[in-house]
Design brief:
By secondary structure, the chain is of the alpha/beta class. It folds into three domains: about 1-145, 3-Layer(aba) Sandwich (Rossmann fold); about 145-180 and about 225-305, Serine Threonine Protein Phosphatase 5, Tetratricopeptide repeat; about 315-460, DNA Cyclobutane Dipyrimidine Photolyase, subunit A, domain 3. It has 19 helices and six strands. The protein has a six-stranded mixed β-sheet, with helices on both faces. Its cofactor is FAD; (6R)-5,10-methylene-5,6,7,8-tetrahydrofolate.
Amino acid sequence: MTIQPQRIRILKDREPRTGGAYVLYWMQAAKRVHGNHALEYAIDRANELDLPLACVFGMIDAFPDGNARHYHFMVEGLAEVEADLAKRHVTFHGALGSPDEVALALSKKAALVVCDRGYLRIEKAWRRQLTEAIECPLHQVETEVVVPVETASPKHEYAARTLRPKIHRLWDEFLQPLSHRRVRRHERADVPASRLDLSDPAKLVASMKVDPEIGAVRRFRGGQSQARKRLKAFLGRSFATYGADRNKPEAAAASHMSPYLHFGQIGSLEIALAVREAKTGGDEDKASYLEELIVRRELAINHVFYEERYDDYACVPDWCRKTLGEHAGDKREHVYSEKQLAAGETHDPYWNAAMREMRETGFMHNQLRMYWGKKIVEWSKSPEAAFRTALRLNNRYFLDGRDANSFTNVAWLFGLHDRPWGSRPVFGSIRYLGPATLKKFDADAYVATVEKLAKAEARD
């Protein structure tokens, strides 16, 4: 199928370089070979110019808050990318270094360069820096969302209710399958051999300057094939009761797609189309899942794209900071340090279990994430301290941390995309989640589930 023109932006408008040796695809956000609009667009351009296609990936070992857990999962996925590209006759070159600089080096012999799109500050900076330095055309293709972010809305949206109708008006246009192109020129592109040995993820990560304290987990293995395997299992088993069970952590009704979406190992379009065609689950189940996958996820991307301060307490709406400030001096029954919270050393066994799941497996059910975060607000000395603590823990332990959803979810704890509620101590008119939250599911069964998961992680 034709790639929608709204996905394409010309960052450097020039004629293709005469005598270019290849077309270059700079892979950064979309770390997958299938369901990748940027890659398919690059294949189209290579075929038009009758040139081979090369794919370059630059891996920086100083990504903000990145650690061995994140890098191990990413490298597992990249090993699959390299193998899948070879099957499609695309030459892969990986190297350690700033992604824009690695791409710039290979652009010197390229007729044209294609890149995917990222939304975080550092990702936008890499593309801006490459645009300024490159001497051949640079085309950006957006593939990490169903509806391109600026097409959905030209501004920062106030809440899901303001973005939802805009997305719904457009999503049928963009919920279209992406056809699989064939590369016409099968010879190896004239690029240096890859300098990343992806055959042993643990060894590669150990050789890098990344925080080794938070290590890889058994619960999740990286790669598009793993994402597809989980998605197939979810749609074949849990999806039949998704609408009823999605907020019950003990029910195992989650799809576990968030780590794979975060690392670009599967696209939201592929998931959405699979959900629409699923033989299990009714209309309500499908609508509920697509609301989270498209509306809520793309609301989060809207937030980080339009709000430059997304990782700072200043991003929280004025009314929220005002009411929290008015109650900053309220007495707190419990106050815990970040170290105590990270260790799960609070008086609340259910909160401790949620922290343990996060710390030891890299994941936490969304229902618990809300409760977990609201308690950090309640148990911190100030809202500013709570914001910093929640974000650091989130980004450090979650496989899907450092993500648009993560930054937005932390800000939601303080009122972003929400409305005022009845006033109470500490929270003011910000939404509060208390013991009643734990009555909505079998909290003791959840604790038992976490115990089993932790034991599985501890096996030799």
